[in-house]
Design brief:
mainly alpha; cell membrane; 0% strand; transmembrane helix; 346 residues; ABC transporter involved in vitamin B12 uptake, BtuC; ABC_BtuC-like; transport
């Protein structure tokens, strides 16, 4: 009887030597690092606070430092945890669904859709909306739906058609964004800060709005891990094992759309998390999506928290945008992973 275990993968997709039996301890170590980064995020910044001060503020929110900790650092820490997990998991899923190691959640048009929605709202309202989350979310989900409908084309969804549909929708929407932004200086000024991606200035309400969508997406991703492992065996074999391949591809894309749209609407289009983190995680977790997604849920937020802390410290008392720091951190890791993959395939 055929095995239901994940398929053999290229050598670059296997865990580092000896890491397979250490996957659980390594994941626990990553969780410990994540907890430490979350605590550090509350007291590190352009205005440093001691751990004792932060603890006192958490117990007595009327403390003089409450505005800094409660109104600023707690919301951006929660948002880093949520958006990091959402982007990393959605990146792992889209790479599995398209069998393209260079795919990222932007392939579904969520970044372009959110940007087009933000620009349209700014055009109608005369400036960036007071609640960009609600302005960006419909556009992101709508663009993902358009990519799916075009990619499916009534003949069933295929990875190549999905990639081409995503490229077409992205091109059209970004052309619209550039045309409107270049014609209106006020809209360009309002849009450019959001377009880079940042956790600064976000309120707790933004994290609370994004949490139900991201929580739902992460739960759906966990439920899809085993079916998508079977789908990786190939469509014919997966169907022979009784898997409804079209249904699980659709559910997988829906999960990617929900996660990426919520994260982009909350923090802007932060690049490299959805592309780089799955590559890093795969070196330790291997191709099994159950382990890969677990690592992504931890490593994605860890990358976001480290980047956000550095964004506060590198130019203190001013701050860099989180998306810029993520790109500087994520790009070298991604290039190293791609070089290892190229050597293994040579």
């Amino acid at each position: 009887m055929p095995s239901h275990s994940p398929p053999p993968a290229a050598r670059s997709d296997q865990p580092l030597q000896g890491a397979r039996r250490l996957r659980a301890p390594l994941l626990l170590a990553a969780c410990t690092l994540l907890a430490g980064a979350a605590v550090a995020s509350l007291w590190l910044g352009s205005r440093g606070l001691s751990a004792a001060t932060v603890w006192r503020v958490l117990q007595q929110p009327d403390d003089s430092h409450a505005a800094l900790v409660v109104a600023s650092r707690i919301p951006r820490t929660l948002l880093a945890l949520l958006t990091g997990a959402a982007l990393a998991v959605s990146g792992a899923l889209i790479q599995a669904l398209t069998r393209n190691p260079l795919a990222d959640p932007g392939l579904l048009g969520v970044n372009a859709g959110a940007a087009a929605s933000i620009v349209t709202a700014a055009l109608l309202l005369g400036g960036l909306p007071a609640h960009p989350f609600w302005a960006a979310l419909p556009g992101a989900l709508g663009a993902a739906a358009a990519v799916y409908l075009i990619g499916a084309g009534g003949r069933g969804l295929q990875p190549v058609r999905l990639i081409l549909a995503g490229a077409a929708v992205n091109a059209v929407l970004f052309a619209y964004v550039q045309a409107v932004a270049l014609l209106r200086d006020d809209i360009f000024d309002a849009y450019r800060f959001w377009a880079v991606g940042s956790l600064a200035g976000q309120s707790l309400d933004v994290a609370l709005r994004a949490a139900p969508y991201i929580g739902t997406g992460l739960l759906l991703a966990a439920m899809l891990a085993r079916p998508l492992n079977l789908l990786a065996l190939g469509q014919a074999l997966a169907q022979a094992l009784g898997l409804r391949t079209s249904l699980y591809r659709l559910l997988g894309l829906l999960c990617v759309a929900i996660l990426a749209a919520a994260a982009t609407a909350a923090a802007g289009p932060i690049a490299f998390v959805g592309l780089a983190v799955p590559h890093i995680a795969r070196r330790y977790a291997g191709p099994d999506l159950r382990w890969l997604l677990a690592y992504c849920v931890v490593l994605g937020p860890l990358l976001m928290l480290v980047a956000d802390i550095l964004a506060r410290l590198l130019r203190a008392p001013a701050e860099l945008l989180t998306g810029v720091v993520v790109a500087f951190i994520g790009a070298p890791f991604l290039l190293a992973a791609l070089r290892k993959r190229a050597r293994s395939l040579a």
